[in-house]
Specification:
CATH topology: HIT family, subunit A
Number of domains: 1
Order of helices and strands: HHEEEHHEEHEEHEE
CATH class: Alpha Beta
Shape: globular
Distance between the termini: 24 Å
Largest sheet: 9 strands, antiparallel
């Protein structure tokens, strides 16, 4: 949710409130005075802004500077589409800054909700701490999680998810939106129903990577796997 971005309840309920913040305030101030307030950062070349959530101590949102409705937008699957997930992963430095110190990769998660479980009609990726129970569940099932999408075999936050692993320090040119479409037949036609979560990992052999989780609407609130209270830091 992003209601805390706007000071008045009426504006907070508006599905374009986040777009108005990024386009109407951050981009304007970045061009006029070189400071993208109230955003933490704006990268015009790469096409994204990082927006703080004042209601949650550590959460930030990665928001495209172009008008993109959400996970269902076909623009995200174009060959030239920016990898917003990599930009969101890089934006974890703002989570660390808001947390007051380093946060290990396996305690950071990113999530996008389905079209039916979001409050805003502008694409935004939540970046925050991961729930401790989610982190422990993935660690416990590591040996059963491979490089193809399969059912996790247990619920997380009361929801069912598919899961796969991805090796490597960064997402680089591996875009989770495209990995989902390529790996799960029929998903391209039903992207509005999907939620997608990417959680940093340190595998048992010490190598870095990620867990990718997806679910359908009814399980479309991937943000539920994040912990806005950041209990993993305690």
């Amino acid at each position: 949710m992003v209601a805390g971005l706007i000071s008045t309840p009426a504006a907070a309920d508006h599905p374009n409130a986040l777009w108005d913040v990024v386009h109407g305030l951050c981009l304007r101030d970045a061009r006029l005075i070189g400071h993208p307030a109230p955003c933490l950062a704006v990268d015009l070349a790469k096409g994204y802004a990082v927006v703080p959530d004042p209601q949650h101590r550590t959460q930030v949102l990665l928001v495209p500077t172009k008008r993109i409705s959400g996970i269902e937008s076909p623009v995200l699957l174009k060959p030239w589409a920016p990898n917003y997930w990599q930009a969101a992963w890089e934006a974890r430095r703002f989570v660390e800054k808001r947390a007051g110190g380093p946060v290990s990769r396996d305690r950071i998660g990113m999530a996008i909700n389905s079209a039916f479980s979001r409050s805003q009609d502008q694409l935004h990726i939540h970046v925050d701490c991961v729930r401790p129970d989610v982190r422990l569940a993935l660690m416990a099932r590591e040996s059963r999680i491979g490089v193809v999408w399969t059912p996790l075999g247990q619920t997380l936050a009361g929801r069912h998810f598919r899961v796969r692993r991805l090796a490597g320090e960064s997402l680089d040119k591996r875009d989770p939106f495209k990995l989902l479409v390529r790996g799960v037949p029929g998903t391209r036609r039903q992207m509005a129903l999907q939620t997608l979560v990417v959680i940093g990992a340190v595998f048992s052999d010490g190598s870095p990577g990620f867990y990718l989780l997806s679910g359908r609407d009814g399980s479309g609130f991937g943000e539920a796997l994040l912990d806005h209270g950041c209990a993993v830091l305690r």
